[in-house]
Each structure stands twice: as C-alpha cells, then as structure tokens.
Amino acid sequence: MSDQATKLREQLLKLNKPGNKVIGIVSGKGGVGKSNFSLNFAISLSQKKKKVLLLDLDIGMGNIDVLLGTVTNLSIIDIFGKNLTIRDIMNIGPYGLNYISGGSGLSTIFAMSEANLSHFLNELEDAMDEFDYIIFDMGAGVSEQTIKLLSAMHEVIVMTTPEPTAVMDAYAMIKHMVLNQVEAKLSIVINRISSQKEGESVHLRLEKAVAHFMNVEVNLLGMIFDDSIVRKAVISQKPFILQAPSSLPSRNIDLICNKYLNEENKGATSHSFIHRMKTLFLKR
C-alpha cells in the first residue's frame, strides 16, 4: 500500500459522531441499476427524517443529476482549484437530501496533489457531522482507488441482477474486497428479479460461493422486482419512489430501507471514516 494511501486511511478515523455511517454502493459491472438504487435508497432514508449526503463518484457524467432531471454546474472536482468549500458544491434534492454531483472518476480525484486531497478530506470531515448517513455511489468495477476507499467505509452494499455475468462480477467484487482485507460490513441487493424464487436462488448461489471460498457472511439486504415503472421513471428523470410510490419497486426500496435501519447496529464498526481515508491516501 502506498504512503499516500496509508496516510488517507489514518486521517479518516476520527470523524464519526454516534450513529454516523459511511456506506459505499458498488457493482461488479455497469448496467445493474446501482446509481438508480443509490438515489432512491438515499431518498427513502431522507423520507424517514434521516440526514443524508449522497456523493456521485461514478466515472463520467453525473448519473445522479440525470436521474433527478437537474443540471448542476459544480462537481466534486471543483473543490480543487476554485477555493470552494464542500457546502458550495452541495445540492438539495427531494426531502432535503444533500447530494454532490460526479463528473470525474476516482482516478482523477486521487491523482490530485496531496495538498488538494487533504483539502477535500478536511472539507468532508467538517461537513460530515451534519449527516446521519454518507453514501458513496461508486463507479462500476474494481480499481486500486475503489478498494482503498471501501477500506475506510463502515458498510458496503453490492448490487447485482440475476444475470449470470452480473452475479459472477458481484462475486469477483466481494472476492477483491475480502482479499484486500476490506473490513466493512457486506450486504447485497439483487435488482430486477422476476420472482421471489429467482432472487432467493441468486442469493443462495452467492452465499454458498462466498462462504465456501472466503468464509465470509454476506447479508441479503433485499431484492427489487423488475418493473416497467423504473424505466419510465428514468425516462421522466424522476426517482421512481416519488413517481410511483405505491409500485412494487418502491415498496421494495422501503422494505430495504427499513431493514437497513433495523440492522444497522449489527456488526457495525466504530472507526472513523475520515481518519481511515487519511491513513490510506495521505503521506505522513
């Protein structure tokens, strides 16, 4: 692990307030609905009176903006070089959700100078006490930067669909995290299932493979049924839990959110995210 990575990890460990949780949402491949889930999950938490900050770290254009039907002029990368605070780049979404647009991948952010990266982390540290949950919508796939960032988080949710390639990629993502000693609590969400039986079958296959080859328990956080309402909501650029709150996928999100809130203290770690990030990425 590089000196820069080690330092970022150390700086991220002094940050949390009681109940403050940092969640990474990842997928082994693109196209499984990760960003859509991240946004709707974050809104569901906000509906339940939780203070949530959603950061779009997906590579390329800001998917969160697109899904919300909004245009923002500032993204995470603008904190560097423009003398901005993290509050300057925050946007307010439905139910008071705070979100920060992407537009740049992790490789760009963590290729910044140590001074710029330290500034970003200090800004994040200053703001995090305001929030109950900080959610990172990560880019699809595995990179060195992704693993380092996940190593600092309290919990990681892995998204997949029943497609065999998506399941194998989800398994590969979990394997990378385990081999790299990511200690965050692991959960999976299975998207676009056609039946309860199909979803349970996917979970069973993943559970057996992970338990057998890695001796790790992966919690099933929930499943989301395939429904045309999700595609219609994406086209309309409105979160589906707001466009069709009584739809099956919206009820699935609500169940997932309730289960998460009920289970969040089980296996939760007490480390501070910012301290761990600074240990991982900044030099001493």
Describe the structure in brief.
The protein has 284 residues and is an alpha/beta fold.
General description of the model:
45% of the residues lie in helices and 16% in strands. Helix 1 packs antiparallel against helix 12 and helix 7 (164-179) runs parallel beside helix 8 (196-214). With 284 residues, it is α/β, with parallel strands linked by helices. It has one domain: P-loop containing nucleotide triphosphate hydrolases (Rossmann fold). The longest helix has 19 residues, at 196-214. The chain has helices at 3-11, 34-47, 63-68, 106-109, 114-128, 144-151, 164-179, 196-214, 228-236, 240-243, 248-263, 273-281, and strands at residues 21-27, 52-57, 91-92, 98-100, 133-138, 155-160, 185-193, 219-225. The mean pLDDT is 86.
Share of helical residues: 40-55%
- Taken from the alpha-carbon principal axes, the silhouette is globular
Q: Give the strand line-up of the largest sheet.
A: 3-4-2-5-1-6-7-8
Helical region count?
12
List keywords for this structure.
284 residues, alpha/beta, Rossmann fold, 8-stranded mixed sheet
Task: Itemize the secondary structure elements and their pairings.
Elements: H1 3-11, E1 21-27, H2 34-47, E2 52-57, H3 63-68, E3 91-92, E4 98-100, H4 106-109, H5 114-128, E5 133-138, H6 144-151, E6 155-160, H7 164-179, E7 185-193, H8 196-214, E8 219-225, H9 228-236, H10 240-243, H11 248-263, H12 273-281
